[in-house]
Design brief:
The protein is α+β, with helices and mostly antiparallel strands. Among the domains are: 180 residues, 2-Layer Sandwich (Heat Shock Protein 90), CATH 3.30.565.10; 104 residues. The longest helix has 58 residues. The radius of gyration is 36 Å and the shape is elongated. The chain starts with a strand and ends in a 5-residue tail after the last strand. It catalyses: ATP + protein L-histidine = ADP + protein N-phospho-L-histidine. InterPro entries: HAMP_dom, HATPase_C_sf, HATPase_dom, His_kinase_dom, HisK_dim/P_dom, HisK_dim/P_sf, Sig_transdc_His_kin-like_C, TCS_sensor_his_kinase. Pfam families: HAMP, HATPase_c, HisKA. It is found in: Cell membrane. Its EC number is 2.7.13.3.
C-alpha cells in the first residue's frame, strides 16, 4: 500500500451531480449530491399553503358569508320599512303619491346598498388582516413545538418544550410531546447502558481465551492439527474482540458530547493515514491524501475514529490495486472530510443500508474477515453526536464517495 499526493490522470471524472470545489492546494472536493426535501402540507398550484393562511382564508370567508347575510337581511328590513311610508301632499293624486313613494324607496335602497357594499369591503379587508394576526397568535405555540422537534436528535433528547399558558389543547399537545421525549430518552439510555455493560462483561472472557490460546500455541509439543485449530480460534476471538470494541465505541459516540475542542481534520487524517500505512492489509491500494486545514469543533478521539473507519472501509472494501482519496478542507462553511474509493459497484438503494449496524454490501453477514459491520454505523453516530451532516453516494465505476460536514470551530 502506497501514498501519493497527486491524483493520477486516469482517474474517472466525477459524477454529473457533483460539482468540483477547488480550495487552496491541489485537492478537488466533489460536492455531495443533495436532495431537496420539501416540507409536507397542503399543496396546490402555488405550492405549500400553511395553516396560518388557511385559517386566515377561513376567517375571511366566514366574515364574508356573515356580512353578506347581514346585508341581505338589513336590505329586506329597510325595504319593508320604507314600503310602509305613505306620501301625503296637497294637490297630488294617489297615483302621483305612489310614484313618488316608489322613486323614494328605489333611490334610498340604491344609496343604502352602494354605501353598505363600500363599508363591507373595507371591513372585510380589516377582518382578513386581523384574522391573519389572530391565526399567527394562536399557532405560535405550535411553531415552538415544531422548532423543538426539528432540533432534537438522539443526543439532545434531554430538551423539553415546557410550554407555559392556559391549560388548553395546545398545552396538552406540548405536555404529551414532552412525556414522549422522556420515554424515548429513557429507552435510548437503557439501550446504551446495556450495550456498554454487555461489552465490558464480554471483554474479560475474550481476553482470557486469547491468553490461553496464545500460551497453548507457544508449546512446542502441540500437534499441527491442534495448532491449526488454535489459530482459527484466535482469529475468531480477534473478530469478536473487534466487535466488542466497535459496540463500545458505538455506545460512546451516541452520547451527548460534554466537551468540544477545536480539531484540525487535516491533522487527524494525516495521523490516520500514517497508521494505515504501517498496517498490513489483505489488498494493496494506493492512498491519495489531499489535505487542507479544516478545523471542526468536537471530540478528538471520536473524530479520529470517524476518519479511521472511513479509511479502513475504503481499503477493505476495495479491489486489489485500487485507489482511495482522502480529502479535508472547508466546504460551504463547514469543516469537511471526504473519502472516495474504488471497488465493487454499490447500487443506489444499498447505500443508506450500509450505515445500519451489521450491514454489508449485498446483505453479507457471513463473511466477517472484513470487519464486524459496525464501521459506517459508528461514523453516522459520531456525525450525529457532533451535529454534522453525512452524504454518501455510489461512485461511477464502483466504490463510494462519503462526505462528512461538521460545524466549524470559531476563530481564536
Amino acid at each position: 500500500m502506497t501514498q501519493e499526493t497527486e491524483r493520477p490522470e486516469s482517474r474517472p471524472e466525477p459524477r454529473p451531480e457533483h460539482k468540483e470545489w477547488r480550495g487552496p492546494g491541489p485537492q478537488q472536493f466533489p460536492r455531495p449530491a443533495q436532495r431537496s426535501l420539501r416540507p409536507g402540507g397542503m399543496r396546490g398550484p402555488f405550492g405549500r399553503v400553511s395553516v396560518r393562511l388557511r385559517l386566515t382564508a377561513l376567517y375571511g370567508l366566514l366574515f364574508l358569508l356573515a356580512g353578506a347575510l347581514l346585508l341581505f337581511v338589513m336590505s329586506v328590513l329597510v325595504a319593508n320599512i320604507l314600503g310602509n311610508i305613505k306620501v301625503i301632499g296637497f294637490g297630488i293624486t294617489d297615483d302621483e303619491a305612489a310614484e313618488l313613494q316608489r322613486r323614494f324607496v328605489e333611490e334610498t335602497m340604491r344609496q343604502l346598498v352602494a354605501r353598505s357594499l363600500v363599508a363591507f369591503a373595507g371591513v372585510a379587508v380589516l377582518a382578513v388582516v386581523l384574522g391573519y394576526f389572530v391565526a399567527d397568535r394562536a399557532l405560535s405555540p405550535l411553531q415552538r413545538v415544531t422548532a423543538t422537534a426539528r432540533r432534537l436528535s438522539e443526543s439532545t433528547l434531554h430538551e423539553r418544550i415546557a410550554l407555559q399558558g392556559p391549560n388548553d389543547e395546545i398545552k396538552e399537545l406540548a405536555d404529551t410531546f414532552d412525556a414522549m421525549l422522556e420515554r424515548l430518552g429513557q429507552a435510548f439510555d437503557s439501550q446504551r447502558r446495556f450495550v456498554a455493560n454487555a461489552s465490558h462483561e464480554l471483554r474479560t472472557p475474550l481476553a482470557i481465551n486469547r491468553t490461553l490460546l496464545e500460551v497453548a500455541l507457544g508449546d512446542e509439543e502441540v500437534s499441527d492439527d491442534l495448532r491449526a485449530v488454535g489459530r482459527t480460534l484466535l482469529a475468531t476471538n480477534a473478530r469478536h474482540e473487534r466487535l466488542i470494541e466497535g459496540l463500545l465505541l458505538l455506545a460512546r459516540s451516541e452520547r451527548e458530547l460534554t466537551t468540544r475542542t477545536p480539531v484540525d481534520l487535516a491533522d487527524v487524517a494525516r495521523t490516520v493515514l500514517e497508521n494505515a500505512g504501517r498496517r498490513d492489509h489483505d489488498n494493496d491500494v494506493v492512498l491519495h491524501p489531499e489535505l487542507t486545514t479544516g478545523t471542526a469543533l468536537g471530540d478528538p478521539v471520536l473524530l479520529e475514529h470517524l476518519v479511521s473507519n472511513l479509511v479502513d472501509n475504503g481499503i477493505k472494501h476495495n479491489d486489489d490495486g485500487g485507489e482511495v482519496w482522502v480529502r479535508t478542507g472547508v466546504l460551504d462553511g463547514f469543516a469537511t472530510v471526504q473519502v472516495e474509493n474504488t471497488g465493487p459497484n454499490v447500487p443506489g438503494y444499498e447505500v443508506e443500508r450500509l450505515f445500519e449496524p451489521f450491514r454489508r454490501l449485498n446483505s453479507d453477514r457471513v463473511e466477517s474477515a472484513k470487519g464486524a459491520g459496525l464501521g459506517l454505523s459508528i461514523v453516522r453516530s459520531v456525525v450525529l453526536a457532533h451535529r454534522g451532516t453525512l452524504y454518501a453516494t455510489s461512485r461511477t465505476g464502483g466504490g463510494l464517495i462519503i462526505t462528512i460536514r461538521l460545524p466549524l470551530a470559531p476563530p481564536t
